# Entry
Amino acid sequence: SYELTQPPSLSVSPGQTARITCSGDALTNQRGNWYQQKPGQAPVVVIFKDTERPSGIPERISGSASGTIVTLTITAVQAGDEADYYCQSTDSSGTYVIFGGGTKLTVL
Amino acid sequence: EVQLVESGGGLVRPGGSLRLSCTASGFTFSDSWMHWVRQAPGKGLVWVSRISNDGRATRYAESVKGRFTISRDNAKNTLYLQMHSLRTDDTAVYYCAREGAGTDYSLDFWGQGALVTVSP
# Structure
């Protein structure tokens, strides 16, 4: 079965940079998307197609990809960035959608 | 404004059935591929199913294949998820979501979710 692996948690201080990784074999030929989910709310897409940012998402949030890893980077982290972040992609054939296990970002 | 509103959630016994609906507005529903994603209490997001814009193509996660059926009525701007043989591990908030066109399966709008509780 196809999997996407994320670290379960990450803690950063305000003003610092948070980098969340997501690894999976199919990421070599499939692109990744990232979602932010705050408690009691539906997820919101923050990055799609590895690096593209939807309108309304601040430039502090960016995405990159290399080999089997996609990375979500949040610079100048603020208290309001505290949330769960999920990567998402598909298997190599584009048949099945999959989410990573999620990373809980804590702002110290 | 794009809106997705789920309904039909509730409490059901193991082995029972339930049908979720998702009513869409603010966009051309018949142009969009749609998904169901679920989230068990305190757990992560899990993809459930996907349907093409015309309803002819469907895909399911292995965990629900043969038990759940995704469908849509484009005349009513409504997406459905028919769930049979429900198990306690199907307990979750079920979200419907729109796949953004040309975004490599990115889900650009989500509903608020419908809670399904499977309990004896």
